Structure formats: structure tokens, C-alpha cells
Amino acid sequence: MGATTRLRAARASTEFWTRIDLELRSCSLNYSAFASTSTALKRVLPFVIVALVGFITVGAATMLYRAKRPVILSIAKEKATEKERQESIHVRGPAQAPVTLEEFGDFQCPPCGMLSGPLLEMEKDYGPKLRVVFRNFPFPNHQHALEAAYAAEAAGLQGRYWEMHDLLYKEQANWSQAPDAKQLFVSYAKMLGLEIDRFETDIAGPTVKARVTADQERGKSLGVNATPSIFINNQVVPPKSLNPTALRAAIDEALKERPTS
Amino acid sequence: MPFQSKSRDRQSTAIALPRGTVIVYAVVALISLAGLADATYLTVQNLAGETAVCGGSPDCFRVLGSVYSKIAGIPIAAIGTLAYFAVFTFATFAAFGYERARTFLAVTVFMMFLSTLWFLYVQAFLLHAFCRYCLFSAAITFLLTGLIVAIPRRP
Predict the structure, then answer these.
(1) Exposure of A192 by Cβ count < 10 A (0-12 exposed, 13-18 middle, 19+ buried)?
(2) Using an 8 Å Cβ cutoff, are A62 and B48 in contact?
């Protein structure tokens, strides 16, 4: 090998190692860039995950609340007038009372039971100024609610609806847990001095079913989806105000708007 | 001040954790999501005023409508929602190696554990009624406590 060839080989070798050195440096820079990107991502990722879960939770809660929140219901004027004409069977208080409280209730619903006592006191306190209308709105997930509504209507056919209404709420804790609630309803009918044979026939008859269905249909047409649902002079009472204090305030307000004639 | 700076670094930056520990924190985060869903549902129920039809169970109403269901007017369910969200947040950060998040997670879960014991006592001895949603939440809190206790302490 001549001196020129050796010199050329040496130059090629130097270039080779320089190239290798450059490539290694480039790789190192790429790796550093990758490593720093990965670290940044790791730092950001938990924030992203938490924000995402928070966003989903708030979104789901808002959607659920919108689906559940009470729609501001009111009975249309035409319907109200029609209602006035078709006097409800289950009414306590004078027809000309300035305030009408219409309740959609389920005899097995605990809040309805808890509200029944205070409502009775309000009726006494307001006297002729208040008229109370009760509508059956039994929920299918309450085992004996429908039967209880039938029992009240069957008692109503013998003119003792309100007595049975009050008794069913008073005894709610007992018959709600009973495997055969009908037996208890019959014993309540006895307590109220009803004709038992007639009561037992009526409770399974088409008349009481038709009355309960009519009440339920009226409730559904007004957008009722929970019990108790109460309307005061055709304006729905928000669920938050379904307590004695707020109800009295609402009645007082209604009395101011429509004072005793 | 090198010591302070070092301490701050240790607390706020991520550290490498054993794979098993990371998995446990991830499981804690996932379980807390179930509690978050439960508590959020109850909060919405409360805000919508729908305790009336809480699964058709009178026991549920007795518990959720009782005086013990609120603290200073704030529903316990809403506090539970925040607590589960905090657990999820801390567990996620702990899984990514954030040292301080581990401490916060342990403290939060411990406080939830104590609260759960109190609420179980209230249901069993004061209200004589059990709410199924509350029992589900109690089970989740116990599970979270077990997992947090099981995580090996770093030497």
C-alpha cells in the first residue's frame, strides 16, 4: 500500500468517526427531547384525568338534575274552570273557599304520611278559607299503594272516604310492611262501621278502579311525577316547600292574593 | 437555602413508585368513582327534592330525610361527593408519584372512615333504619381504607 492510499484511508476513517460522533450526538439530543416530552406528559396527565372526571361528574349531575327537577306546573285556566265544574268527590272545605289545596298523594309514601297530620291541622286552623282536594296517585313501586287507594275509594262509596284516608295515613307504618294488607284494610273498614260485604265487593270492583285511574290520569296530564305533589290555587308547590311552615306561607300568600269574599 | 428547596422538590414533584403501589392507587381511584357516582346521585336527589321516592324504601327516606342528613344546611351527600372526588384526585396524583398526594389521600380516607362509623351508628341506633345508598358508600369507604392501609410504606 502506497503512502497516498494510506493517507486516503486515514482521511476516510476520520470522516467515519466524525460522522459516528455526529450521529450519536443527534441521537442523544432526540432522546433528551423525547425524555423531556414524556416527563412533561406525565406531569400534565393527572391534571387532565382529574379535570375530565370532574367535568363528567358535573355534566352527569346537571343532566340528572334537569331530568328530575320539578317543572313549574300550573293548571291551565280552561282546565281549572272545567275542574270547578266537575266538583271532585274527595273535597274537604267549602266550595267558595278562597284557597284550594289539591294534593296528589300515595297512601304508602312516607312523606305523604308525614304531611297528612300537619295538613289536617291547617284545615282546622284556616277553617272556611281553605278547601282541600285529594287525588290518588299510587306509585307502582309501592307494594300496597294501589290496594290502599282502592280501599279508600271503596270506603268513599259508603260515604267514609276521608275517614279511611286519615286512618290509612295514621296506620301507614303497619299495613305498609304487612304481607297481606287487604286484611288490614278490611279491619279498618270494620272500625269505621262500613258494610264489609259491600266494601269487599267494591274494593275489587270497576268503579273504584275507574276513580283511581281518573285521578292518576289527571296527575299525569299535569306533569305530576312524585308524591306528595301539591297545587295551591292551581300553582304547583315546589318539592322543597312541602313542609308545614312553607305550606302555611304559601296558603297565606294565596289568601293575600284572593282575600275572603 | 438548599434544605428547603430540596424538601419542596420532594413534596411537589413526581417520584418513581413500585409498579404494585401504582396499581393499588389506580384501583383506589377507580373504586372512588363508584362512591362518587353514589354520592352525586344522592346529592341530585336532595337538590331535586326527590327523597319522596328513594327506591320506594321508607328506611331510605327516614335516613335521608332525618336531621342527621345535613350539617349546617349542607346535605351530607354533597360533602360525600366532594370527599370522593378528593379521593379520586389524590389517588390519581399519588399513582403518578406525587408524594404529597399520598399523605392527603391517607388523611381524607381516614376522615371518611371515621364519618362512616358515625353514620352507621346513627342508622343502627338512632334512626333504626338503613339506607341502601349509605350502606353502599360505607362499603366503598371500608374498601378504600383497607387498600390505603395495605399500601407498603416507603423506607
Answers:
(1) middle
(2) no
User: Could you give the count of Cα atoms lying within 13 Å of A192 in the half-sphere of its Cβ?
Assistant: 26
B49 CB neighbours in chain A (<8 A) are 70, 226, 238-240, 242
Q: Inform me whether the C-beta atom of residue B155 falls under 8 Å from chain A C-beta atoms.
A: no
Least CB–CB distance from B44: residue in A53, A68, A139: A68
Q: Shortest CA distance to A182 belongs to which of A150, A156, A136? A: A150
Predicted TM-score of the model (pTM): 0.53
Enumerate the β-bridge partners of residue A114. Answer: none
Nearest Cα residue to A112 out of A42, A170, A64: A170
Cα B131 to its chain centre, rounded Å, is 17
Q: What is the pLDDT of residues A13-40, one digit of tens each?
A: 778 878 888 877 776 666 666 667 777 7
B21 interfaces chain A, CB cutoff of 8 Å: no
Least confident range from A46-55, B1-10, B131-140: namely B1-10
